[in-house]
Design brief:
Length: 137
């Protein structure tokens, strides 16, 4: 476990008073909390729960004008989908995340989405396209 303090997602949800679909009164903070809970679920191997939290973060962000944050959260969703072999679902999320993040001046987060896209292209045997994309990072 990468977390030095072993805390379960359920325990954190109880401490913060936040659960799936919960409200904490501030959508921007709600999105960040949902994303962090998704990250914890990811490292616990709970991919279905991870996707629920990441999607909640992605859906809350645009409602407060955080389109860049939503694109980053979509990159997280796509990472899980790529790991599950669900490349058709992941590809549009990654391409959009890369576009939004690059145009907003967020190259570090954009490169995360592009690394995932490179892996997706490799999974499909599109090695030349993957190499071209990854060499551009």
């Amino acid at each position: 476990m990468l977390n030095p303090v072993p805390v379960s997602v359920g325990a954190l949800s109880r401490v913060t008073g936040y659960g799936k679909g919960g409200e904490i009164g501030d959508l921007a903070s709600q999105a960040r909390v949902a994303n962090n809970l998704g990250g914890m679920a990811y490292f616990d191997g709970q991919w279905a729960e991870t996707l629920e939290y990441y999607r909640e973060a992605s859906e809350a962000s645009p409602r407060v004008g955080h389109f860049v944050g939503a694109a980053g959260f979509d990159g997280n969703i796509a990472e899980v989908l790529v790991n599950q072999g669900r490349v058709a679902e992941a590809e549009p999320l990654l391409r959009n995340a890369s576009r939004v993040l690059r145009s907003s001046g967020s190259p570090w987060v954009a490169s995360f989405a592009e690394m995932q896209l490179g892996g997706l292209l490799s999974m499909r045997g599109e090695y030349g396209a993957a190499e071209q994309l990854l060499l551009g990072l």
